[in-house]
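Dear Dr. V.,

Thank you for agreeing to look over these. As mentioned in my earlier message, I'm a first-year student in the group and I'm still getting used to reading structure tokens, so any feedback on how I've presented them would be very welcome. I ran two proteins. I've put each sequence directly above its structure. The first is here:
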Amino acid sequence: MADYLFDRGVGSRLFPEGVRIIKTRGRIRQVWLGDKILCTIRASDGFIVLNRRGAELLHAALRPPRLRVMVSEEAAPFVATGKTVFAKHVISADPEIRPAEEVLVVDPGDRLLASGRALLSGEEMMAFKTGVAVVVRRGTGGA
């Protein structure tokens, strides 16, 4: 599923040897690596919802600009604390991003700030000057 959602070969990087799977009612719900949760699996559609450690692994596994939304330096500290990404602060975005896809939010130096769910396509993020581009799920904790 990770290869399908994110890119070919990402599954082995996102889920290295030693991951622990938590199931309820026979379905995978969470994936842990050591004492850190990597992701949860959304029950309604089976999509992977990244936690902080999972976003870090995905960021390391993907080459820019894949699944990245780059925000301005002025917005970066706010996004890193979990605030919403507005279209006016988007400097660049992967044109292949589709609405409802998990994305990585980065600063101009490609430092991971947050992960979240895209509300707009990558092209729309660049074209629009108002509105919400990404609903941030988890910030990295500070810029």
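The second protein is here, in the same arrangement:
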Amino acid sequence: MTPRPHDKHTDPAIPLLMHCCCGPCAAGSIAPVLDDGRRITLLFSNSNLDTEAEYLRRLNAMKTLADFYGLHVETDPWDHAAWLEFVSVVPDFAACPERGARCRRCFQWQLTRTSVFAERLGAHFTTTLTLGPQKNSSAIHEIGAQWGEAFEPWDFKKGGGNLRSLELCRKLGLYRQNYCGCEFSKHANTD
């Protein structure tokens, strides 16, 4: 059994909506939740992605992974203009470093969108964002706490999540991107 990357016991009868930022992060996150006896629906929501082509490329990887696990994927339409407007309230947002205020605002966007889908499905929710090595799980959990028990604070870096991700991505031939998704994170990785 995969170690549980969270400390909170939740009734396994409550379905869980898992916000998925990409196939690689989901690849390292799904197994421990299934091992915990949970029913999962995946949500691919990525308006932060800088191009629609990138959105579709990552969506295809998600569908491959969902087929492997026999899971359903809900999709949130790509709307980068709305995402940009949302994060633009952060002063000098384009120049913010990774893990900074722009990323926190993006986490707020992702979790807010996910909460709407979760409420519609009568589910709790979590996010695979916590698997990313550049993502601050504590910040994500702090933002998620505003939804009370509806948000489940899984930290998918714990319990070997990155290794699980690498192995499953290789096995399934999943696309592994080299930046988080927005045009600002792309530039951060080319410096």
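From my reading of the second output: The chain has a mean pLDDT of 90. Strands lie at 16-20, 40-45, 73-76, 124-127. Does that match how you would interpret it?

Kind regards,
E.
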